[in-house]
Amino acid sequence: MSMADAKDDAAMAEAQPLGRWPVLSYGVGHMLNDITSACWFTYLLLFLQQIGLAPRAAAVVMLSGQVADGLMTILAGEMIDRFGRFKLWHIGGSVLVGFSFSSVFGGCLLCTILGTDSYLVRTVGYSFFAAVFNVGWAATQVSHMSMVNCMTLNPTSRVALASCRNASTMVANLGLYGIALGVFGAIKAKEYSDIVTQYRWIAYLSIFIGCCFLVVFHAGTKEPTLKSEPSCKKAARISWGYWFKKTLYYQVALLYMLARLITNVSQSLIAFYVTRDLRMNEYSKAIIPAIIFCCSFFVSIVLQEIKWTSRRLKSLLTVGATLWVISGVAVFVLPSQMNSLMYPLAMVIGAANAPVMVTTIGLEGALVGEDLNGCAFVYGSLSFLDKISCGIALFALESYEDTMVSYGETRGLNTVSRYGTGLIPSCFAVLSLVVTSTLRLQDDTPRAAALDAPLLV
């Protein structure tokens, strides 16, 4: 066999679809990040305000974490592109996530160390551990996401990996809301200590479950070697400037940022919305998010079975964004007397979230293509935009709430939770529709095979 034939055989092997187990074991590798992130975005602002922090101070804690997360994504992307070692970064970040997450929702550790419970110490303490949490979260996220392009060259398998990861995210969110529902039912929040106990139990159980899936990931997923193979088309590390010259980079970056703004901003304020605006019971702050993620989970599972092309990516992203425009406007104008309609609306939101997130992550894979030696920078830089934009958006909304409170009680539609849960995500969805219409994608391997074994059977 000639050297050329050997290279062709190697290339064909690398382009073969992945089996079920590699996809599933990879997909659960982000579960610790996902379950803690679900708690972070759904309950952090609510928890901090329940224990006495003002909306703006709570937003400062959130923003400090988002800034640290954004900066770490850039650093992690650069270091992984230079030195590799995906799984080492993954386990290191996971350790930081577990330690710092328990230090935020488990009570003010800095207050305990200094022996004081002053407002300033609490704000600084929560902000510090929020930053540590997000540093670990970013290291785990970038290493996990950038593994996709180095595990296989098959485009359908790459989307399947991203889709399985997204489905696992839904499972993690459902697990979190199941835990929260059980804890809220078992421990009634009558005073400050009860609130702290509630969230401490949520944090500890979340970390335990996430670590169980972490073991599965490291046991079932090998360190990717495709990046270092001779068949890799670009052996030299790709500079940042290479990506900045691509129009597609800016389009995908904007779409990914908008997708994250849609999901994270709405998720962060939905607990306020259902309890304050719609005047639903306390269980609703776990049940409504659970419905959203349950629907997202089922749609994500279906999406894993699709044979992907650029046209389908664009079409499904358009469908998801359109559903969000409709449901977001409905959420914004929904009166409290008709709060039962929030249940079907939650189903529509969940169905919209899945195609929005799966397709934008799939677009990241399409952007990277076979340029494997720069993939971590792409995922890191796009995640940087996501974290900073979400932090700024939530800080602006919470600062506006502080301003409204200083002028007295607000009524009608003029509430931050209505804006953040409904109207603002709808505006972001409209922008994503505009950007999607400008995409020009090409299918390098239009006849790529689907998964070796379907995930539904």
Short description:
The chain is an all-alpha fold and 457 residues long.
| Secondary structure: helix percent | over 70%
Radius of gyration using CA atoms only: 22 Å
SSE order, as H and E? HHHHHHHHHHHHHHHHH
The best one-word shape is globular
Q: For this entry, what is the oligomeric state of its chains?
A: single chain
Task: Please explain how this structure is put together.
One of its GO terms (biological process) is carbohydrate transport. Belongs to the major facilitator superfamily. GO terms for molecular function: symporter activity. The chain crosses the membrane at residues 88-114, 126-147, 167-189, 201-220, 248-274, 286-303, 315-334, 341-363, 419-439. Keywords: Membrane, Transmembrane, Transmembrane helix. The protein is mostly helical and 457 residues long. It has two domains: 18-221, MFS general substrate transporter like domains (Growth Hormone, Chain: A, Up-down Bundle), CATH 1.20.1250; 239-440, Growth Hormone, Chain: A (Up-down Bundle), CATH 1.20.1250. It has 17 helices and no strands. It has helices spanning 3-14, 20-27, 31-50, 55-83, 86-105, 109-114, 119-146, 148-151, 155-186, 192-220, 240-244, 247-277, 284-303, 310-333, 342-368, 375-406, 416-436. 51% of the residues are buried.
List the keywords.
Major facilitator superfamily domain-containing protein 12; Growth Hormone, Chain: A; MFS_2; mainly alpha; membrane; symporter activity
